[in-house]
Each structure stands twice: as structure tokens, then as C-alpha cells.
């Protein structure tokens, strides 16, 4: 099985078009009304912010299972799950800010990416609750399922970035059109 082909197949899920269109409209409206587009999209940084923000929930959630299983420390595991959950809202907002700028095949992948990650968030919320109720076995199960959902979402996010080029060269139009740096383009002219 070729993973790239599986991920690329999502680009052709035309049945997602109405959902993608609605999500794009809502995402654009929410971000633009709050005047958050510039901050959330990363123009001040020169590249999208969402890929940077995802490292916090991914790192916290991945570490949580290590602390629970390897170090036998469910209290730290619970705290790490909580940190990941706390970092989720700005990460989601930044992702939705970028979503409004995607083309339709990218939006199809983005919808499935968001659904998979939404599933992961729900599972980690259940894990956090199980930890709080001192049910570490249930918390671990939810955590493991959350990691699987997060892995699928991450693979789709990687496909968006690396295979589909979502957000690439967003603030460098000359390079985006020519696949050359602005300096190379100007020296060739």
C-alpha cells in the first residue's frame, strides 16, 4: 500500500465539496470579523503559524503516554493531556484561518484533517476525564486511540503542506510562480 496514494485519494472526495465550501465561508467570516487573519495566518512571521502551534498538543499528548506507561506517573500524564487540550484552541483557530485560503482539493483534505484531529481532541478530553476519575487504564486506552487519530490527522496535514503545497510561498509571489528565489529571478531578468 502506497501511503501517498491513500492521502492523495482524499483530494478527490468530491462529496466533501459542500462541507468544504461551508467550512471555508465560516472560517473566513470568523477570522475576518475578529481581525485575527494577519496574526493567525502568520504574515508577521513570513510563514503559517498553524504548523508551529501543532507541536504543543502533539508533543504533550505523545509525552503523556510515555509518562504513564514507562515512568508509571499518571499525574504527569494527566497534566500533559491537559496542556495539549489547552493548546488546542489557538492551534485550531490558526488552522481555520489558513483553511479559508486553500483551493478545493486542499480543502477536501483539510476537512478530513480537521475531523481526524477533532476526534483526537475528543479522545484526549475523555482521557483527561478518566485520569481525573483515577481510571488510568481507561485513560490509556483513550490516549492510544487519540494518538492514532492524531497520527492520521498529522499525515493529512503533512500531505497538505508537502504534497499539496498549502501555504507555501504565500508571502513570496515571485518565488511561488517561478520556483526560484526573488534574487535568482531578478538576476536572470
From TrEMBL:
Residues 46-168 form the DUF2231 domain. Pfam families: DUF2231. Keywords: Membrane, Transmembrane, Transmembrane helix. The chain crosses the membrane at residues 80-97, 109-130, 142-162. It comes from the Bacteria. InterPro entries: DUF2231_TM. This is DUF2231 domain-containing protein. It comes from Mycolicibacterium rufum.
Amino acid at each position: 500500500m502506497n501511503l501517498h496514494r491513500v492521502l492523495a485519494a482524499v483530494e478527490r472526495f468530491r462529496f466533501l465539496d459542500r462541507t468544504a465550501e461551508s467550512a471555508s465561508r465560516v472560517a473566513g467570516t470568523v477570522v475576518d470579523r475578529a481581525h485575527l487573519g494577519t496574526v493567525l495566518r502568520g504574515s508577521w512571521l513570513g510563514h503559517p503559524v498553524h504548523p508551529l502551534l501543532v507541536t504543543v498538543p502533539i508533543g504533550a499528548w505523545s509525552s503523556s503516554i510515555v509518562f504513564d506507561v514507562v515512568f508509571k506517573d499518571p499525574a504527569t500524564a494527566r497534566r500533559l493531556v491537559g496542556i495539549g487540550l489547552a493548546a488546542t484552541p489557538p492551534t485550531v483557530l490558526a488552522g481555520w484561518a489558513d483553511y479559508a485560503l486553500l483551493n478545493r482539493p486542499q480543502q477536501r483534505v483539510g476537512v478530513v484533517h480537521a475531523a481526524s484531529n477533532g476526534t483526537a481532541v475528543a479522545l484526549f478530553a475523555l482521557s483527561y476525564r478518566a485520569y481525573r476519575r483515577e481510571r488510568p487504564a481507561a485513560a490509556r486506552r483513550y490516549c492510544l486511540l487519540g494518538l492514532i487519530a492524531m497520527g492520521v490527522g498529522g499525515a493529512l496535514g503533512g500531505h497538505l503542506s508537502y504534497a499539496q503545497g498549502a501555504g507555501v510561498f504565500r508571502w513570496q509571489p515571485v518565488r511561488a510562480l517561478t520556483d526560484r528565489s526573488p534574487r535568482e529571478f531578478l538576476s536572470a531578468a
